[in-house]
Fold this protein.
Amino acid sequence: MNILILGGGGREHSLAWAVMQNPKCDKLIVAPGNAGIAQIADCATLDIEDGSAVVAFAEAEAIDFVIVGPEAPLAAGVSDDLRAAGFLVFGPSKDAAQLEASKAFTKEICDAAQAPTAGYGHFVDAQSAKAYVREQGAPIVVKADGLAAGKGVVVAMDLDEALHAIDDMFGGAFGGAGAEVVIEEFMEGEEASFFILCDGTNVLPIGTAQDHKRVGEGDTGPNTGGMGAYSPAPVLTDEIANLALEQIVKPCVAEMAKRGMPYQGVLYAGLMIKDGAPRLVEYNARFGDPECQALMMRLGGQALDLMLATARTELAETRVNWADDHAMTVVMAANGYPGAYEKGSVINGLDALVEDSFNMVFHAGTAERDGAIVATGGRVLNVTARGATLAQAHQRAYAMVDAINWPGGFFRRDIGWRAL
Ligand code: AMP
Ligand code: GLY
């Protein structure tokens, strides 16, 4: 079959890599892709948030299956346009993607489903939001309702910080995303991510992971999109994962179906775990980046069958073949990230690396210039390895990192410290 993947980051490189290993894939196009993806698939220039442009492209290329990587095309309704044109799609509808695109919507679904999550208030003006914060006290969490590229959440340790965050959000610091604000109880515990395929009715867990959001070693410094991840997450034991499935995921998926917006795609549940009990921090309507890179390394070619079963509503008859393995991905980022960073620095040493089903360098923000690979983004490479133990995956990933010669970049040496 002919397959189209939308997106151009490390997540999409790992999806492309897994899909290419499945003999069902005859042709793979990734739009827009990047320099790493171009080594294994065709890349195409396309406005992936423009539904009619994506439909026209998929028709012209005789595409049989479309996999939507990032949240922006989901929130723009690109899956709906593709489905209306008769395409098989992996990725939720615009309505269902509200589980990521609106924090207030997600809280409402959790309420209806009685899913454990933080207590909250939902506000459309600064004055009542501030009154609520004064009444609740700190620590407290202030969130812009809409999509804000991971920047719309302020975990305020004191009242002043919370009041400032409210002013910033209603003042337009996050554009339309901050026109409504959700204020949440601060939850303590350990965070982990749980990935579940949903075909509208049935659910199938496909792995757990933990990421490192802070830029600095020891989990210090500003927040990033993620500096590394590993799978599985030891804190999400089978017992806790099962609680999350029964108490949080299944009731929410049932509530979505009841509302006429069945969820079809991967549901990424961010969980807070304390004393053996999971609570929902947030949902995302896509794979995590860089968590996906670790998951794909473990699932390999069966990932395509799983995504097809999701799109065809056949999850009830589908199983995952688990290997008893571990994977880790280490992000290499451009100097300065997550602040202003330099673009165009040359990365050496990639050609000499041996890549196989245990060792892969997924590209996140790269381009090819005069035969050299150059950095074009903040997060640039996702060096990913698999092993029988997390320690082995860690050793393999850092052996690759150490063989890459890139003075313009940096990485954290301590990915996985909590689990190792
Ligand atoms: P979100 O975008 O909702 O995942 O929030 C980003 C990060 O803020 C999460 O990964 C948590 O580390 C933190 N966070 C969000 N909500 C809460 C909460 N209610 N209590 C504690 N930490 C939170
Ligand atoms: N790594 C976090 C995310 O993809 O949202």
About this structure: The chain is about 30% helix and 30% strand.
